[in-house]
């Protein structure tokens, strides 16, 4: 059997997303209920088992400031912990090291000591709870309450009640960024995150259907001025378009282009069209905040999970079949989406581990180029095909079968050459990744029967 002899270089994530960021996010396995111990235990597993494969960021997803008590859920009101300036701080019952104004400092320090980077999910604007309490606004330049026009500005002066977050209307609302007090409030938030040692911020309810280019712009400018580098991510991306992304990609490092992705084939299928459109618009690896930006297809809901908007931790295995899981990981790699694993890493099974650490998949995700859906005229009826080139001259070709039955998928070498001008594909040595089969020397075409919901990923070395 032909063996791939090229050396796979280890992925090393640079600051400001020179390649698609990679890591773990707590949402798919813990929803909002994760505790400090659970998070740090998970981080240690990632450091021990996944860091060597480039999984560098560990991210606490939403509502880390919400008290886990009866009545509290994803859109409840009045259960959050805020400071005197209306800023969210960790729930001390779940995050005991946050007491006495420490916030996430100790957690970030421990994460950094593991060789990892620390991220948090934050919401748009200001919390309804802060507006109801009419808290003062911190001026980070003076360390005192923000004053202008001989008045001390408050949360009620900047909160826009007519613009609540669409999916958390009781929790957060936009702020008036045209007012200097509104910008000062946002600056106080992100300055505090930097002081805590946060390395990534996942900013929600400002993109897609909730687009707030003004808030994104203010936050991006604040991040530029901070001494501590923070990767800037936008979420979610319901109704996101390439035209919309062109307006924000230079301000951020990654941005969701789909709604929440959960573990069902029906949920996965729309990602084929979305990823195709963003690739065709040349958005993959476009200029971003102090580096590059990446369209984000959302987390990988593999392994041991919880349920959407659940109030409990991981308790079930993914609903995706093995073929569907391979299809998802292959599409994410060919589209160069950030890879954020969502399963419970404390219970990481061998099959899932092998899937998300596959060296070829990670090589494609980090270092391939010319990534696009190859819309060959004869690849129809639920078949999809992606193509890309490797940094050492290889060609990657992926077949996907979206149908409920097996389908034969073919690609002509003449058509592949049309989408990869300058490539000589007349005589290529071919290998299929997932089966480990050698395909021999490719002549005029490559044809394969692909299982329902399955994929084939070919690596071709051409003279």
From TrEMBL:
Domain Alpha galactosidase C-terminal: 382-458
Molecular function as annotated in GO: alpha-galactosidase activity
InterPro entries for this protein: Aldolase_TIM, GH, Glyco_hydro_27, Glyco_hydro_b, Melibiase_C
Superkingdom of origin organism: Eukaryota
A GO biological process held by the record: carbohydrate metabolic process
Catalytic activity: Hydrolysis of terminal, non-reducing alpha-D-galactose residues in alpha-D-galactosides, including galactose oligosaccharides, galactomannans and galactolipids
Catalytic activity, EC: 3.2.1.22
Keywords, comma-separated and alphabetical: Disulfide bond, Glycosidase, Hydrolase, Signal
Family: Belongs to the glycosyl hydrolase 27 family.
PANTHER family (alphabetical): ALPHA-GALACTOSIDASE, ALPHA-GALACTOSIDASE/ALPHA-N-ACETYLGALACTOSAMINIDASE
Designated name of the protein: Alpha-galactosidase
Originating organism: Quercus lobata
Lineage of source species: Eukaryota, Viridiplantae, Streptophyta, Embryophyta, Tracheophyta
